[in-house]
From TrEMBL:
Cofactor binding summary note: Binds 3 Mg(2+) ions per subunit.
InterPro entries: Aa-tRNA-synt_II, aa-tRNA-synth_II, aa-tRNA-synth_II/BPL/LPL, Lys-tRNA-ligase_II, Lys-tRNA-ligase_II_N, Lys-tRNA-synth_II_C, NA-bd_OB-fold, NA-bd_OB_tRNA
Protein known as: Lysine--tRNA ligase
Subcellular location: Cytoplasm
The entry's keywords: Aminoacyl-tRNA synthetase, ATP-binding, Cytoplasm, Ligase, Magnesium, Metal-binding, Nucleotide-binding, Protein biosynthesis
GO CC term (a single one): cytosol
Gene3D superfamilies given in the database record: Bira Bifunctional Protein, Domain 2, Nucleic acid-binding proteins
Species of provenance: Bifidobacterium bifidum
Domain Aminoacyl-transfer RNA synthetases class-II family profile: residue ranges: 207-529
Domain of life from the UniProt record: Bacteria
The keyword Transit peptide is annotated on this UniProt entry: no
EC number, UniProt record: 6.1.1.6
Organismal lineage: Bacteria, Bacillati, Actinomycetota, Actinomycetes, Bifidobacteriales
Amino acid sequence: MLLRQDAAIRDRIGAGATLDEAVDPSNKEFGPLAHPEQVQMRVAKRAMMLEAGMQPYPVHLDVTDTIEAVRAKYDGKLEAGQETEDVVGIAGRVLFLRNGGGLCFVQLSAGDGTKIQGMISKKEIGADSLKQFKQLVDLGDHLYLRGRVIASKTGELSVFATEWAIASKALQPLPALHKDLNDDTRTRKPYIGMIADEKVRNMVRNRSKAVASLRRTFDDHDFLEVETPMLQTIHGGAAARPFTTHMNAFDLDLYLRIAPELFLKRCLVGGIDRVFEINRDFRNEGVDATHAPEFTMVEAYQAYGTYDTIGQLVKELVQKTAMDVFGSHKVTLLDGTEYDFGGDWKTISMYDSLSEALGEEIVPNGGPDNPGTSVEHLGEIADKLGVERDDVENHGKLVEHLWEHFYEDKLYEPTFVRDFPVETSPLVKGHRNKAGVVEKWDLYVRGFELATGYSELNDPIVQRERFVAQAKDALAGDEEACDIDEDFLEALGVGMPPAGGMGMGIDRLLIALTGATIRETITFPLVKPLALQ
């Protein structure tokens, strides 16, 4: 449709039509565009440039300086009206345009939002070139200017152009940049958000800084970064519902990974004693302010570590990231409140804190000889409190649901919640002193789970028992239960050293550091197509 209309407009321009004559305001064949007449006009300007031998999308322009560098060098150094003989070549997006008589003004913006004024004068470039400038340049275009650095009569740092060129002709008009973008536009068209909203640009940059900081800290501790498979024949490493796909070459059903854990542990078996991965995971579950189906995780495993040592590592990772991104352990959230990641972090026990909240002791399930608090009694408590229950239940699931009812969204300061039920943590080593409990912690920040850590299970016999129990849950209808991974069990049989392990969502780390939602931390979040709404 656009191609057909472009051809028609180019024919009119080639026949000598003016811009206004080349555009048909009644034409609605440009599709569901917000401003079809404006798009036609911009397409006509592109056609006029081609007809005149000008390139609307040139291969190369002599950009010798960044807007940021010009600002850094000259800001505050020139008096109003002062001119220099320093010539620069800059480019940026046109965010403001004022076409006067013999003098035009533009505001160019660099990718980071740094802006500078350009001045285009008939005296400097000639009447014909100025006429073309007025006729062809629109808001949103990428514009190249070459000229002298001056301060305008009002003191505005400017480039007084001796040469100009359109670097990229924008066919779609930008939204009104002085108005707030609605959330739907910002989410569906992140590139518009980046142009219009400094907060969106900052999030992209801060995310990159955070990932770089994590890598530096791991490198400081001699961790090796690896990449493990995204497509897996067996889903495991976490309790979650997987996405499925099919490989035509092998006629094989596969899963998008829910976690890299089992492959990273194979690295421990192979002698890589400190290993980490920062990559994407996929979980076919609910979407809310802290959950997305596609997200970025960091997982790390340290031979001869425990959940205690790995907890100290996670604290260091988070605190160093806050320092590297924001320059302080105390960060300012999007709502203006401050949050402090510094100092000592609180630690509580899941069973002790739940017992305190209920006013009765909840005892872990230590096996047939020490069954602990029964599933029936825990279910009665859940029903009284109105706590949602699963179709497939056990002691551990009920304990976690009850604990979440009392505490999950109330742990505001950084808090390690330790010692989880064995039933819900099939890959974690049993507690060295407490039957029915595993050496696992979850780190809560501002009322949500940020990270998790373990003393890793490395006994292949116990691991098989845990996998078998999970397989029984899967047969009973638990879609989050792990399958039995025979290859992983074989690897454990070769011998995996004792280890501590951790996992932390990068998206959630940005939520913790900024107060944003998970969609705001992901540069291109998955959104439901409009056609399905």
